[in-house]
Amino acid sequence: MAQLKKKIALIFGITGQDGSYLAELLLKKNYIIHGVKRRSSSANTERIDHLFDSVNFSNKRIFIHYGDISDGTSTLNIINKIKPDEIYNLAAQSHVRVSFDIPEYTADITALGALRILEAIRILNLKKTKYYQASSSEMYGLVKNKKSLNELTPFHPRSVYGVSKVFAYHTAVHYREAYGIFASNGILFNHESPRRGPTFVTKKIVQGLTRIKKGIQKKLTLGNLYAVRDWGHAKDYAISMWKILQYKKPDDWVIATNKENTVKKFLNATAKKLSIDIIWKGSGIKEKGIDRKTGRTIVDIDPKYFRPSEVDFLKGSYSKAKKYLKWKPSISTNELIEDMIKYELSKID
Ligand code: NAP
Ligand code: F7E
Question: Which residues on adjacent β-strands are paired with residue 262?
């Protein structure tokens, strides 16, 4: 019987949070995976090292290439060499706060990087290659009507990160319309996991409070506690990326949980699970979280974590994805927090 040809996926950003979950998923689906890694002075492959162990090396299914989406020539060469069935562009300078410090760099990677990949697909005339763009709820930015946001809600980004993602979003739509490339946008709302980078707020809170509980950190210092976010689990969101590229036509999709929480609510829920009883005192930059048991201040505010312009409210409606992709989130915010705490405890014990 003729063997079905294995699909080939190329992941830009394979070393990141989402890249690692997506690679796991695609391995289970029997793909051959190619991933692009930037050169760095240390290995920086912690999130995917376990995948190499689990793969039978006589039948290698995961390959890493050095590359950088700031470099159009090497990006084109990698795509030409692999000629993948699916390209997932998850590579970005992905930190919103940092984009205020390095705006030009952020635009080069997060905006122009996407253009470079799409240009490679066009120049190489890869008619069968599908492209996934990691678009973001940060594109909505200034939300006037605090209701669920969907694929038709206008964009008003509040950072160069958001502006760059709007550029990449429209570039994907443009290459779809102008050149018939199968280019889809997943407009993903915040998603977290034990593999989240340490300076994003959920990881900072879970890691900080777990360490405080274990007596190895004294205090957690944060910025704006009142921003509203819609937090899902990255593992669920990786499934949506794959489903988006399996759909019969290219399109744009909101992926979210449709649940809203403030940073403070996320923090309180984490503290409760760790049996830390926090009393809140003061307001604004003087607000403090005090440990009822010890009377010590364990949470305080530093204005350096505030952004020159904030995204106050994000909650997404995933109705379209539910209807057509049969996607819905399976991990609740509570379970997400438990998963993150379990991981942090395992690192300490
Ligand atoms: P992440 O953990 O920061 O991962 C970003 C990845 O991009 C890393 O593998 C990083 O490599 C790589 N990268 C950065 N600059 C690069 C360059 N110049 N060339 C090649 N690769 C480069 O981000 P994530 O949370 O997994 O998010 C994945 C994508 O989804 C990003 O595009 C992000 O903007 C977007 N997004 C994320 C969320 C979210 O809530 N997580 C929501 C919506 C959209 P290093 O490991 O070397 O740094
Ligand atoms: O901030 C507030 C902060 O940095 C969330 C990226 O994956 O999701 C992410 O962007 C909120 C903001 O994520 C601290 O002001 C308070 O309101 O965890 P964050 P983000 O900015 O929402 C979107 C969808 C992406 O696409 C991005 O790639 O938390 N906040 N205190 C803080 N944030 C941080 N980082 N650190 C604090 O100390």
Answer: 228
Burial class (CB in 10 A: 0-12, 13-18, 19+), 189: buried
- Protein residue with least CA distance to atom 17, ligand 2: 227
Pairing mode of beta strands 297-301, 288-291: antiparallel
Has this prediction a pTM greater than 0.90? yes
CA of 48 to the centre of ligand 2 (A): 24
- According to CATH, the topology of domain 8-194+232-259+311-331 is Rossmann fold (3.40.50)
| Cα distance between residue 37 and residue 159, in whole Å | 26
pLDDT tens column, 199-226: 999 999 999 999 999 999 999 999 999 9
For residue 98, report the distance from its CA to the centre of ligand 2, in Å: 10
The domain locations on the chain are 8-194+232-259+311-331
Q: Establish whether residue 199 lines the binding site of ligand 1, counting it when its CB lies within 6 angstroms of any ligand atom.
A: no
